[in-house]
Amino acid sequence: MTHSSIQNNPTTDPFAGGISEFAQRLRNGDMTAISATDYCLSRIKHYNDRLGAFVYVDEAGARATAHAIDALLDNGTDLGPLMGVPIGIKDLFAVVGMPVTNGSLHPTADLSGTEGTIVKRLKQAGAIVLGKTATVEFALGATGINEACGTPWNPHDATEPRIPGGSSSGSAVATAAGMCAFALGTDTGGSVRIPACMNALTGHKTTHGRWPVDGVFPLSPTLDSIGPICRSVEDARLIHQAMMREVVPATAPLRALTFGIPTGYFFDELDEDVRHTFDQAVSLLGEAGVQFVDIALPEAVERETLFPAIVPAELLSTLTVDGFHSAKASMDSVTRARAEAGLGLEAVDYLIARKRQAALVPLIQQRLTAVDAWVAPTCPFTPMTLASLQDPAMAARSLQASRNTQPGNLFGECSVSLPIGHLGATLPTGFQLSCAPGQDARLLSIANAVQQCIGQPPLPNLSGFDSTA
């Protein structure tokens, strides 16, 4: 009997034990790529109409690739730990044979270019692309709301829709719903970490420039980065290792680590559950031997002036002014307002902001040399209901989803968001760790040790989303 003829239970989650366990089962003959792919496709068919995570599914292509992967294994070809792993790709990336909308009704596929380095590397590693996941229009939004093309439903509440976090909203919802093993996102001001936080997942924001961004719609070349939204840090570690072809140590010893906790800004106006779960995580890590020290990051507040001076101008340079005016009638209202603000920006103000952002990178890293990482809550609040955003005060607060994540982009750092809602919250919350630029391998080793110490929640139970429910 060949490997590809093995029959598996399609109702059993092939990634319940993580990518590493799946890889072992695949090679032991206990699992096949086609059965894992069919499992994910069945989840998409059953839940996507309600959740809206995928905007395009290539069922035929995914199944053909899975059969080819099984044939390669039968012939003794091993492409590595991502071989046979079904994934989602944010609809900001160009993928051969798939449409790209960038979350907009206005045609902009040409602005994403042709399939880029990271998607090619994933395919070369044997990952199976299931399709494209929903995004906030042009990735310019932290709540996950897209008035133009639809907002994915956060799977942590089946009774009423809550914000999924953005801009990589569909990637997070798809991963949390078990529709894929992991999904790619982008992060310009928190767009990997925020949806990971809001969906109780792990999100890795890679160092700016560390993962190539060719073939991805350029929101802000100064700040754009990409990374995976995963079930665990261990999965993120394997993905980074495969993409960068470098060894990432499994864990770092907690007793040898010192974490900095910023005073002030990152802890202003937190939901009670957010503060409680963060404190619980700190307590557990302290008991495990981590040392905590106060640090000063007063430059974090500069996100409020630097982002509006950099991002809208760079988006408009991508769309062109004429292109923006052609698109704005059908655009999401928040995206439109933020982009439109760039029309009145003086060139000198943009250049001053760029110069200041570049200066922040070495300044912050010099100040943080005494700590291994700095930590803070990922988002200041738990996922709000969409209905609550009819209240102007709540709508304004929702736009602060990125207040704790944007500083890391300005500082050029790599960051990880870990789920900690299981430590005492009723909805997802996140624990953010950040390290110096280029220290992604070190960060993932530290974050893996942290996650092993504080634990992680299971994926949400989707029984409330069943068609008969």
Report on the structure:
This protein has 469 residues and is an alpha/beta fold. Helix 8 (233-244) runs antiparallel to helix 16 and helix 10 (303-319) packs across helix 13 (347-367). It is built from 16 helices and eleven strands. It is 38% helix and 12% strand. The protein has one domain (17-465): Alpha-Beta Complex (Amidase signature (AS) enzymes), CATH 3.90.1300. The chain is globular, with a radius of gyration of 21 Å. It starts with 17 loop residues before the first helix and ends in a 15-residue tail after the last helix. It has an eleven-stranded mixed β-sheet, sandwiched between helices.
Which features characterize this protein?
alpha/beta, 16 helices, 469 residues, 12% strand, 11-stranded mixed β-sheet, Amidase signature (AS) enzymes
Short overview:
The protein is an alpha/beta fold and 469 residues long.
